[in-house]
Specification:
669 residues, six-stranded antiparallel sheet
Length: 669
Amino acid sequence: FQRNPNFVPEDGTGLNALLQNYWMVIHPPTLFLGFAATLVPFAFAVAGLWYRKYTEWIKPATPWMLFAVLVLGTGIIMGGVWAYETLNFGGYWNWDPVENAVYIPWLTLVAGLHTMLLARRNGTALKASLLLVITSFILILYSTFLTRSGILGNASVHSFTDLGLSGQLLVYLLAFVLLSAVLLIREWKRLPSDPKEAAVYSREFWIFLGVTVLTLTAFQVLVPTSIPVWNKVVELFGAVSNVAPPADQVGFYTQFQLWFFVFIAILSSIGQFFWWKRYENAKSLNWLVMPLLLALLVAAAVAAATGVADWKYIVLLYAAAFSLIVNGRILWMIVRKGYKLSGGAVSHMGVALMLIGILYSSGYSKVVSMNTTGLLFSRSEDFTKDDNKENKENTLLWVNEPTRIDKYWVTYRGRRTEVKGVPGYVNPKLLTDADVPFRAVALNPIEQNGRTYYQKGDTVRIFPENTYYEVEYRDDRGRVFTLYPRVQKNGDMGGYAISPDIRKDANRDLYTFVNYDPNMGGEKKEWSKPEEHKAHVGDTLYLNDYVAVLEGVNRLTELPGVQLTANDAAVRATIRVLGKTQPYTAQPVFLIKDRMVGQMAETIDDLGLRITFLNVDPRTGEFTFGVSRTQKDYIILKAYVKPYINVLWIGCVVMLVGFVMSMFKNNRQ
């Protein structure tokens, strides 16, 4: 700065296009807050061991445990919503290692929460509570190591790289592991415990079963996720490990997690039942007979009505229905004593709803944009083979030509852009570039819904990194709606991101995104050599496959962007072109300025035509036009139908509401 006081550093490359999203403002900080919150119950647990106050720490730590579960769960759900609304893989959870690294400690936190609630009543679950609380915090540190050390660089789609912190993170992790292990070993024999085994008809027995399943659920995800770490450890000892993470992550994890959650749904319901009703013999199970039978009838009826035929999904549906019925019955029973006591039942019902939503939205998600053209889409690496799945599951949409998708006639209307202060999106043909970045000049008044926002010639602010595609849907009853899937670019980073737009109905989502656009990668259109056409006013022209009429030629006194003097001349032709679905108007300009000739061509993207005003013969009144041809404008669209996904989002909210209720109740206690 002393050498050059006026030094200004160059602009950076900006955020990756995927990160230019409002969810990235709230999703990561929420996760980080959830991570940090696990430190509080961990600190209470360590203090209890350190000062040998083995049971006193449970009560003040419980609200913080609930807070950590609530906030971390909220962050995970936000991540799922972000993935669903922003990414184009058609879902909300992909079992990516970085996703798993957050999911694993959340499961152990939930397990630890349940044992802490038991430990407040007696010493049966004290040891389990200490183990799970400490393990949850260690897993948070381990997750941080996985994501920030770069060790998952080849296993995860998340672009975390090694920032040179791997050694520090590893030392930090091992220090807490060592501290915790020493304290636990030193105090283990002194820890109070219940000398009697938990009876089969006790709350302790069933909650312990549920906690065991939750812990196994986390362990099943932890082991495959840690394969890159195992390979690295083996390499440190001079050996080579060929163990690879599962290729089909979704299929691999789902086949195990489905059954874990069948047991979790059933065990959590029975555990909730024994929590509120204490019995000492088999007669206690009579209370559960009616929910078991009713859940069977409900699951059978729903499966038949909605077409669920896979026996595994029917079992999951039965478990979720059983959980809803049991917890609903318990909620009705205890809400009369005070709604503040019902947080647990509400959370369990939320989880059951989530399972139903996941079952339908993932298990019965269906691609509806099937390729019926017989064409091979070979523009992108995804469309390289005739039998390629992606080639079969995408629809080619020519601009302004309706195509049948699902129960709709779908029409691509063109690209759109954002203009600050204007609701919705604007046709970029109404704008021309200004000399200032992120600014444009209106060529015509900009109107939306009958209101004029900018006049011709006004300078407006634009967001050129975003391109929206106006896609109109019309059902057989004539009802119309429009979706605007987006492509987001970052020119400095040389990348772009595809984001979907979603039509949300009560019983399903229509999830759509543009898989390919010829302009997406900045490719320029290849135009044919101009063909000359001569005509008088009123003559008919045959341009490519279209009929056109030269309706008139008028002299201009003003021309946007050009200052005309008395010695200059400009004329504009009006050519009406009859397209297949609608007529179009082209107005090319012929200009003489400062004794130099110029032409301002007019492009009709819908038809793939560019018309240039080449010459004027004042003696004969004949005008010459050059017509070039190119590929008509089109996009390749992919669309899914995701049934009953709203049940998933409702279940998420219900579960979090239950956690909030429990947190405030325990905080008051």
